[in-house]
Write a structure and sequence with these properties.
Alpha-Beta Plaits, Maf protein, 3 domains, Molybdenum Cofactor Biosythetic Enzyme, Chain A, 17 strands, about 40% helix, about 425 residues, alpha/beta, homodimer, six-stranded mixed β-sheet
Chain lengths: ~425, ~425
């Protein structure tokens, strides 16, 4: 089964919005054994969208999913475009009109516009291709599903929450989509491995495919993330291919293979802390709260994460974390002694077993020859009182340096937890 | 001038990586008056990539930019695909080989693999389409530029930092790209407006295009973000069209039009604080550090942001922010009195003029009938001692609720700053 995703929206195309819908749909489909063959992002132009949908039907993909362009403004043209691609007119769908009105009435901002505007915008959103099945609105925009030339076309709204909810409802209830999914197999042996501080060429060498032929029975994708490699494996034909690759990588890299089930490092950390009934605090300077934000994105993190101090100003390092004025004056905020004192101070101030600290020069300004942009100290304090501080010299812009610092801090803790 | 972007990579297609390159390229091009006509994301398959590049050349776009697939593993096929699309062979580029080796030698991980592996991977990365101009590597992968059928094809590496640096260097130095850009005009009157707490239908009604025809002289895109609308305007033909729309929106919505130059709310806040020589602290519970992270993403934020407390556990609210035990026991952590006390406590603990606090139920667990998922209190304490607390009931999943809370907190501060 092959699927194509068509994302519409000038704001997406022009880079002003981070597109999440294609990623959601493709990840979902791929895990269910449907092959995403392309994602296309197009402007809000009827002709462009219609041509793309028509081309994908002509290519005989089994499923085309569109995202966006179901709103009430002049540049929302997807329903019209899909109708044009499929070669049918559009018409007001009475049931959709009722649902649109009902959903829209739930929002107070609804009544900031005139009745005339409300009627016109409701009618626009309830106008669907003739013969399409309506997908009930999650927000105010209904979607639709229709078959054309052996391809199922699914039209979904742009806001990610609405798209995801409508997709999942269609998976359950739309007869066309149920049929497509029933005809796929689950990708056997599929798993995601995550490896810390290993580069792609090391994986290539460890697998030694030229000699072992190990890649013959597996579909493998390697993705370099910040500080990590992500490998996606699935059996290709013969069962056990993914197992063999995973085993070889674990033999080669040991504990650097920190996730065998795709769990990100913050989830691995949470499992480790919860198992020990221990709690973590953070003391963040240049990362500004990024580490706390990543940890608290994990549901249930309150069990093992108490919080922390965003010690952006030196006075805050001193007053809330007890970093000695001496150390700040003599060694400077970006130094091993200050990273150490921040970690110790966070443990004490928040009363936790573990603490992570980060202090560095994120740039673009603030660097000196002695302490250049990218210099970052990461500290980890453990329940037994031991404190470890690592020095890093990261490359990249402000955001990349901050992200690298956050990732390496999380991994320092992960390793300390695993070996404690 | 029309441009198309082709992003390659199974990890991108399957949604495991957040794609930033297309957004960067399209935003850059659009601001320079080049029309991005599509973005296509494809798997790491030579035939698919070659077909797409060939189709775009056939469509007579002026510029095609590819991203990704220049690495050393079996699934890095972009150079070969572009050569196939253009109809030339590939060959080892001697100058590229020297640069690849030199850049690779700078990384300690280089020497974790054998000389044989290093030679083979270097040769792969230095193999370019015959006749292409080499774009010098930023990491280890060189890119290239070549003309085919009136279209300039630019091949860039996947890691965002490398792509951006190589693109900017090519803008300066590649004769083909300089020629394309010389033939564009800057989009006249182009600006980005940001409006808080206004929905699209209100903008539609305010512009009353059916009566005023105001949209006839302007290219306008509306994008709904979390809690904000983003409008991109440019003159279409006649000068002054964008000005007219901006003026009408400012008349209709007043201070809700909080950004007239595209600056995001955290930059607007920074300008306000810097002008008053005042400093901000945050006290975050359910947002976990997200607000601090957004504020510190702004270079120079240390001038007006001191840091804060991530008070995830109630004990931390008590011990670091001085929230009374009474209030926590009686009203609960998610309450107006606790939000108030957190804001007051952050001001005091960090010694700042301003403070923001957030406490809420992010979900999916933790909700009750009295305090459901999405209930969030946001507090703002000012230098004169005044404290304002707003209650919100947000809808969405954990991440959406956290993001909505962060956005509304930033806007509460923005408004308080503007009216102080």
């Amino acid at each position: 089964m092959r699927a194509a995703v068509v994302v519409t929206g000038d704001e997406v195309l022009h880079g002003r919005v981070t597109e999440r819908n294609a990623a959601f749909l493709c990840a979902w489909l791929e895990a269910r054994g449907v092959d995403p063959v392309r994602v296309t992002v197009l402007p809000d132009r009827t002709a462009d969208i219609a041509a793309e949908v028509r081309d994908r039907i002509h290519d005989e993909v089994d499923l085309v999913v569109t995202s966006g362009g179901l709103g009430i403004t002049h540049d929302d043209v997807t329903m019209a475009a899909v109708a044009a691609a499929v070669g049918v007119p559009t018409a007001l769908h009475e049931e959709a009109l009722v649902l649109v009105g009902r959903n829209a009435d739930r929002h107070p901002s609804r009544f900031l516009v005139s009745q005339e505007t409300r009627d016109a915008t409701d009618r626009k959103q309830a106008t669907l291709p003739v013969g399409a099945r309506m997908l009930p609105p999650v927000g105010t925009a209904p979607g639709c599903a229709l078959e054309a030339g052996g391809t199922l076309v699914l039209v979904l709204p742009g806001p990610p929450g609405e798209l995801q909810a409508m997709w999942l409802a269609a998976v359950e209830h739309d007869p066309g989509l149920r049929d497509v999914l029933a005809r796929t197999g689950v990708a056997e042996g599929r798993r995601v491995l995550r490896i810390h501080d290993v580069v792609e060429s090391q994986v290539v060498e460890a697998l030694d495919d030229a000699r072992t032929g190990i890649l013959g029975n597996v579909r493998m994708g390697i993705c370099a993330r910040i500080g990590e490699l992500e490998l996606t494996l699935a059996d290709a034909g013969v069962p056990g291919g993914a197992d063999a690759v995973a085993a070889r990588l674990e033999a080669a890299f040991g504990a650097a293979v920190f996730s065998r089930d795709g769990a990100p490092v913050e989830v691995v950390i949470g499992r480790g802390l919860a198992a020990r009934r221990e709690v973590l605090a953070v003391a963040e300077s240049c990362t500004g709260g990024m580490i706390g934000e990543r940890l608290t994105a994990v549901p249930g993190s309150s069990e093992w994460f108490a919080g922390g101090v965003i010690a952006y100003a030196n006075g805050v390092k001193r007053d809330l974390l007890g970093v000695p004025r001496d150390a700040l004056d003599t060694d400077g905020a970006v130094s091993e002694p200050v990273a150490r004192a921040m970690a110790v101070g966070a443990r004490r101030a928040l009363g936790t077993g573990w603490a992570l600290s980060v202090t560095g020069v994120a740039g673009p300004g603030g660097g000196t020859p002695a302490k250049p942009v990218g210099l970052v100290y990461i500290g980890c304090a453990a329940p037994d009182g031991a404190v470890v501080v690592h020095e890093h010299r990261f490359r990249g812009d402000r955001e990349v340096i901050r992200q690298r610092a956050a990732v390496q801090a999380l991994h320092l803790l992960r390793v300390r937890l695993a070996t404690a």
